[in-house]
Design goal:
The complex is a heterodimer of chains A (about 110) and B (about 120).
Chain A (H helix, E strand, L loop, with lengths): L8 E5 L4 E6 L7 E8 L6 E6 L4 E2 L4 E4 L5 E6 L8 E9 L12 E6 L1
Parallel strand pairs in A: 1-9
Antiparallel strand pairs in A: 2-7, 3-4, 3-8, 5-6, 6-7, 8-9
Chain B lengths: L4 E3 L2 E4 L5 E6 L6 E7 L6 E7 L2 E5 L7 E4 L6 E5 L8 E8 L10 E2 L3 E5 L1
Parallel strand pairs in B: 2-11
Antiparallel strand pairs in B: 1-3, 3-8, 4-5, 4-9, 5-6, 7-8, 9-10, 9-11
Classes of the chains: A mainly beta (about 110), B mainly beta (about 120).
Chain lengths: ~110, ~120
């Protein structure tokens, strides 16, 4: 699975959009980008995933660049409850086993 | 609650004691995973089951660790002769293995182990 690089921390004002970047320059053609988040003292929570098209669900939007070497997770209207560590993970469709987590981005939403 | 359930939530033990954790996956999820997480780090994979078969074990899983999933439903993770370095959050996750979201893993809240 390709490695990912994320900034260690970011801040965002409540109500504003939070844009979390992820670099995955060695991603291969059949690898998906997954995002999970982990709120303090809880297990990781799945947010969204995508291959090459932009994706949106009730939690977030995922924008993947055309060359697929980077992506951005967008929380359109951040709330205090979105304060968490966000993990960007790249894995192939054939992978049914482990997720490889990095250290993620610690997002702090402030009032 | 139909999510992944882990028991206990917290466990304090003395060095050298054995501990066992239980995980109940989401109903009908045939894949079950164990991870370990230490402070400030992301979760690290330990082992993975498909139904009752243990298909992969990490090198992190020393011979003091054993995991089972006897009937393909709940799983247990046992640590023998605990050491202070075993102090961590132990996370369980499950996935369907089928359909569009077959590879999405759903996590429990974890068991926090403290070895004194």
């Amino acid at each position: 699975d390709a490695k990912t690089t994320q900034p260690p921390s970011m801040d965002c004002a409540e109500g504003r959009a939070a844009n979390l970047p992820c670099n995955h320059s060695t991603i291969s053609g059949n690898e998906y980008v997954y995002w999970y988040r982990q709120i303090h003292s809880q297990g990781p929570q799945y947010i969204i995933h995508g291959l090459k098209n932009n994706e949106t669900n009730e939690m977030a939007s995922l924008i993947i660049t055309e060359d697929r070497k980077s992506s951005t997770l967008i929380l359109p209207h951040a709330t205090l409850r979105d304060t968490a560590v966000y993990y960007c993970i790249v894995r192939g469709t054939y992978n049914t086993d482990k997720l490889i987590f990095g250290t993620g981005t610690r997002l702090q939403v402030f009032p | 609650d139909t999510g992944v359930s882990q028991d206990p939530r917290h466990k304090i033990t003395k060095r050298g004691q054995n501990v066992t954790f239980r995980c109940d996956p989401i109903s009908e999820h045939n894949r079950l995973y164990w991870y370990r997480q230490t402070l400030g780090q992301g979760p690290e994979f330990l082992t993975y089951f498909q139904n009752e078969a243990q298909l992969e074990k990490s090198r992190l899983l020393s011979d003091r660790f054993s995991a089972e999933r006897p009937k393909g439903s709940f799983s247990t993770l046992e640590i023998q002769r605990t050491e202070q370095g075993d102090s961590a959050m132990y996370l369980c996750a499950s996935s369907t293995g089928q359909g569009e979201f077959k590879n999405i893993q759903y996590f429990g809240a974890g068991t926090r182990l403290s070895v004194l």
